[in-house]
Amino acid sequence: MDWNSVCRSKEVGGLGVRRIREFNVALLGKWCWRLLEDRESLWFRVLSARYGTDEGRLRGGGRQASEWWRVVHSLSRERCFSDHVSRCVGNGRTTLFWTDVWCGRVSFSVRFSRLFELSAFKGESVLVMSQLGWGEGGEALRWRRRLFAWEEELVGEFILLLVNVTLQVNIEDRWLWTLENSNSFIVRSLYNYLTIQPQVELPVDVSSIWHKDVPLKVVVFVWRLFRDRLSTKDNLLRRGVIHHDARLCVAGCDFVESTPHLFLHCNIFSSV
Prior knowledge:
The chain is mainly α. 41% of the residues lie in helices and 4% in strands.
């Protein structure tokens, strides 16, 4: 039995042994969460004094930073962590308008990257932008140059997203961890996300598929199948193309859409 098989859950024939690398990453994720959630903590103040902050976020420190901090800072920006962190806005005082994820699943700086480049207020909070006014003609919508027609259309879409946003003066902003129903970070949730789709090695000698009498497109397809390179949802999830919530089989059978599932176990597609 190889190590990948040992690390699979017992439900699928493994021994349930933890994957050390993924478990270490999940533990480091706890540090990323603490430094986001509690800016009054001793560690945040120490790191802030040592490396400084940029728009309220700790800086990486470059090559002069400790190895531990370089790893933690890098992880906080990797999609396996950052894609599952968002802001619940109350008064908007501590949420960055453009770069935090607080309205929708991606930040405005990503969704409206052109407008972000042109904005005269890149580093302001949601509260400040609201006070400036983000409705049509509002001061928050001040740009570094006159907009082209297609950019004006982006502004229209942008304003529609904000029209129903109402800030709550007496409620502080807070962070949400979207992999848990409680919205609080748990090491197990990140570990499960990192290991939910262990690569399955198929005991097939792929050199046996290269026959000249078989159409090339068929050979390429079979080769991709055996190498687990098809665009199944589990592969798209690992590449960051789709969200974690969209990983289940399109047939509606409540299983993750993986190559083994589609071709061997799915009640709908395996028969095909």
